[in-house]
Amino acid sequence: MLQLDLRYLGKEIDFASYAEKVAEINKAIDEKTGAGNDFLGWADYPETYDKEEFARIQKDAEYVRKNFDVLVVCGIGGSYLGARAAIEALNGLFPAGKPEIIFFGQTFSSSYTKQVLDYLEGKKFAINVISKSGTTTETAVAFRLLRDKLVEKVGLEEASKAIFATTDKAKGALLGLAKKYGYARYVLPDDVGGRYSVFTAVGLFPMAVAGIDIKAFMEGAAKARLAYKNPKVLENDAYKYAIVRHEMWKKEKKAAEMFVTYDPKFVQLGEWWKQLFGESEGKGHTGLLPDSATFSTDLHSLGQFVQDGSPVLFETILKVKEEPAKVVIPHDEDNLDGLNYLEGKDLSFVTEKAMEGTLAAHSHTGGVPNLVIALDRLDAEGLGYLMYFYMRTCAMSAYLNGVNPFDQPGVEIYKKNMFHLLGKPGY
Ligand code: PA5
């Protein structure tokens, strides 16, 4: 399903020398004994997930698909990035059919918020509010505004039938609201952190409403789980990727990894990937800065720096195999634009050549290490496989760097300052 191509890395890595360390960390992940061990629920989740809830998600999603024009997903960070990444990667940026999925509650921007609220005017919308803590300010403020709008439009009783809440099973303000008003409820398990939650209801409900085959998505994750819980480093590409990252940081003194794709439909996958690695690894003044770019678009902006700027980064290219959408370059009698040499060629062929040319330019000419991750199939199963692969890589990579992959203490500091400035009681 997935291969690592190390030919453009510009260095040999002695993976075997990590055998013992990797096996030890793998055991700690499997047996839940490492740092942050109470947040390792994601590792077996593709097997252990709640099948009754899964069936309910499918049924409710069908109801939303039939009865609403728009689903507004209200959440921030790990409570929306996975769903958004998966929906855009699989459905593209301009999917036909309904319902439309809109993301909300991920910003305090008044212009964005106002625009969305205005956009919903006259539309039949449902809400999926997602918050593990139930108290995240961006999400809570947006949900209050949205709820008001819905209640005003359809009344309290109908509004309650159009709200789906994903939160902790036992605590939090959102749980209180959901219970009081009788919203449909899904659980974000205690032992799964936001950025590892795409295989829970957090990712699954919006994806199912978007028409994605979530069963296949989970099957892909389950296959990846079997492949990447293998303690033998030489047979485990997730762990090899973690070692490449570790060596780039520790030995090559790189400061950043650039996640590169060749399609705008993967921009949000890059956002999800950045949160996963950034929040998991960026601790104690260590770790690689996760960065992302879409080529060839960004070759016209960042390309100069990657090729010729400070040698601070390495690139990881995600190459996906999929049936290309047929877009053939037409003949032009005048050929004033000089493009007839491309006549009859498909755009996917041009993309492939752009990728080959860029790999050679950056790695050979520019001396920038490049790693290629090739995914055999971009469909729900393939994407589930890929996202689990990244999660397993991330846990190993953070442990190799000696940090807890599952906490995010640094995120709290801005919140405390903001709450103080906003006059929140107790701050
Ligand atoms: O990964 C994380 O833990 C964070 O990004 C959270 O998901 C994010 O802050 C939202 O938190 P909550 O789901 O509690 O609203």
- Helix % is 40-55%
Oligomer: single chain
SSE pattern: EHHHEHEHEHEHEHHHEHEHEHEHH
CATH topology name of the largest domain: Rossmann fold
Name every ligand kind in the structure.
5-phosphoarabinonic acid
Strand order of the largest sheet: 1-10-9-7-8
**Poorly predicted tracts of residues:** none
Total E-strand runs: 10
Largest sheet: 5 strands, mixed
What is the level 1 CATH name of the largest domain?
Answer: Alpha Beta
Query: Superfamily at the CATH H level of the largest domain?
Result: Glucose-6-phosphate isomerase like protein, domain 1
Shape by Cα distribution = globular
Number of domains: 2
Mean pLDDT: 97
Question: Beta-strand level of the residues, as a percent range?
Answer: 5-15%
Question: Which structural class do you get from the secondary structure elements?
Answer: alpha/beta
Key attributes of the depicted protein:
Rossmann fold; 2 domains; 5-stranded mixed beta sheet; 5-stranded parallel beta sheet; globular; binds 5-phosphoarabinonic acid
List the helices and strands and how they pair.
Layout: E1 2-5, H1 19-30, H2 45-48, H3 51-67, E2 70-74, H4 81-91, E3 100-104, H5 110-119, E4 125-130, H6 137-161, E5 163-167, H7 173-181, E6 184-187, H8 201-209, H9 214-228, H10 237-250, E7 256-261, H11 267-281, E8 289-294, H12 303-308, E9 313-320, H13 347-365, E10 370-375, H14 380-400, H15 411-422
Parallel strand pairs: 2-3, 2-4, 4-5, 5-6, 7-8, 7-9, 9-10
Antiparallel strand pairs: 1-10
Helix pairs in contact: 1-14, 3-8, 4-8, 4-11, 9-14, 10-14, 11-14
